[in-house]
């Protein structure tokens, strides 16, 4: 492809939509150094900060979703939608993209709708086992749909679906030395280590569960790397005083973090699951019940049904000690979970998605 190409990407609202879009852009940039990139996001959402940090220009639309409960905020939705469609048309006309890619989130709806109307090649990347409303609405209009789970033909036209997986951080594809990881966190190599992940902001329910059981874990001789999230760090940092416990508001070296862990407790966002399949450590998923369509539970079940992880619902947190102790004492279960989780990994997702993008540009 000798000519310079223009790539428009849209996705946001959460890191699960933003980081795949950035990973796709990075791979395209590596293959096509002279390509031009522009992102479209929702004003006042995290993509307006994270995308420029990654080195890309972004334009914002005045758009948000419909509240599922009766809310006065819904009264502004028709105006936001009309405004976003108008501005998406302006952006598409001015940038004149050769390709438009959507990774979910409110802004990708108007952007890909406008692009499809202008017969510009379009592709969406669906991270979850249960699609969001934006991607479900766009499915009939776009050219290709890259997915991470099986059986998405319940929601999307089967002839458009390509199973690629979700983009993951490239540093996870090379396993670091475990002793280096243990040294990085100053861990006792004779003890087992439990990693707690609640996302960058933190998960209140998981933090409360760990607080309730932290002394029991210490008594069991388990070391704990506890990512509290920045919203909760000040509340929980006092537990650093317990032997073998360390709290962190955020963990930057996830390659070393995963390598240091023997067991993991995590939410079940699509991006997290894709990473955990590559890392393949015995994992207990505690999905958030507060997300659209309860998609975290559906994501977790897609793994659990393949005997790749354990599911513990928030409402059943009283079972935590028996569930974790059984896992801690059962080496055969640990090996089985790791083996089955690894089989679900799709480490070359970003490459596969960009291959599909290139096919559409060349057409």
Please describe what this structure looks like.
This protein is an alpha/beta fold and about 375 residues long. It has two domains: about 5-170 and about 345-360, 3-Layer(aba) Sandwich (Rossmann fold), CATH 3.40.50.2000; about 170-345, 3-Layer(aba) Sandwich (Rossmann fold). Helices cover about 40% and strands about 15% of the residues. The protein has 14 helices and 13 strands. It has helices spanning about 15-30, 45-55, 75-95, 110-115, 135-140, 180-185, 205-220, 235, 255-260, 270-280, 295-305, 320-330, 330-345, 350-360, and strands at about 5-10, 35-40, 60, 100, 120-125, 145, 160-165, 195, 225, 245-250, 265, 285, 310. The strands form two sheets. It has a seven-stranded parallel sheet with strand order 3-2-1-4-5-6-7, sandwiched between helices. The protein has a six-stranded parallel sheet with strand order 10-9-8-11-12-13, sandwiched between helices. α7 (about 205-220) links the parallel β8 and β9. The mean pLDDT is about 90.
Query: Percent range for helical residues?
Result: 40-55%
Note the run of SSEs as H and E. EHEHEHEHEHEEHEHEHEHEHEHEHHH
Q: Quickly count the helices.
A: 14
Give the spatial strand order of the biggest sheet: 3-2-1-4-5-6-7
Question: What is the name of the CATH superfamily of the largest domain?
Answer: Glycogen Phosphorylase B
Helices and strands in order, then pairings?
Blueprint: E1 6-10, H1 15-31, E2 36-42, H2 47-53, E3 58-61, H3 77-95, E4 99-102, H4 108-117, E5 122-126, H5 133-138, E6 144-147, E7 161-163, H6 178-184, E8 193-197, H7 204-219, E9 223-227, H8 233-236, E10 245-248, H9 254-260, E11 263-266, H10 270-279, E12 283-285, H11 295-304, E13 310-311, H12 320-329, H13 331-343, H14 349-362
Parallel strand pairs: 1-2, 1-4, 2-3, 4-5, 5-6, 6-7, 8-9, 8-11, 9-10, 11-12, 12-13
């Amino acid at each position: 492809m000798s000519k310079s190409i223009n790539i428009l990407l849209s996705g946001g609202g959460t890191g699960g939509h933003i980081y795949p879009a950035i990973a796709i852009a990075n791979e395209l940039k590596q293959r096509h150094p002279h390509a031009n990139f522009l992102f479209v996001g929702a004003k006042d959402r995290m993509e307006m900060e994270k995308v420029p940090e990654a080195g890309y220009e972004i334009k914002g639309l005045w758009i948000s979703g419909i509240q599922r409960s009766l809310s006065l905020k819904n009264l502004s939705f028709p105006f936001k939608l009309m405004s976003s469609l108008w501005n998406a048309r302006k952006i598409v006309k001015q940038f004149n993209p050769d390709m438009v890619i959507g990774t979910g989130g409110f802004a990708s709806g108007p952007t890909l709708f406008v692009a499809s109307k202008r017969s510009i090649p379009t592709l969406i990347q669906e991270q979850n086992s249960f699609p969001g409303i934006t991607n479900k609405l766009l499915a009939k209009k776009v050219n290709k749909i890259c997915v991470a789970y099986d059986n998405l033909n319940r929601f999307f036209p089967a002839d458009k679906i390509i199973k690629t997986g979700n983009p993951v951080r490239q540093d996870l594809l090379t396993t670091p030395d475990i002793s280096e990881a243990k040294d990085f966190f100053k861990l006792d190599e004779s003890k087992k280590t439990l990693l707690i992940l609640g996302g960058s902001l933190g998960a209140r329910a998981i933090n409360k569960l760990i607080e309730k059981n932290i002394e029991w874990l210490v008594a069991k001789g388990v070391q704990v790397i506890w990512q509290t999230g920045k919203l909760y760090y000040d509340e929980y940092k006092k537990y650093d005083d317990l032997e073998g416990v360390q709290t962190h508001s955020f963990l930057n070296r996830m390659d070393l973090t995963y390598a240091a862990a023997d067991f993991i407790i995590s939410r079940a966002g699509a991006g997290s699951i894709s990473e955990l399949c590559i890392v393949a450590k015995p994992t207990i998923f505690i999905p958030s019940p507060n997300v659209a369509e309860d998609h975290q539970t559906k994501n977790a079940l897609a793994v659990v049904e393949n005997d790749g992880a354990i599911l513990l619902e928030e409402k059943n947190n009283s079972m935590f000690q028996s569930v974790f102790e059984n896992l801690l004492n059962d080496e055969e279960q640990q090996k089985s979970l790791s083996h089955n989780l690894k089989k679900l990994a799709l480490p070359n997702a970003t490459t596969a998605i960009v291959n599909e993008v290139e096919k559409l540009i060349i057409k």
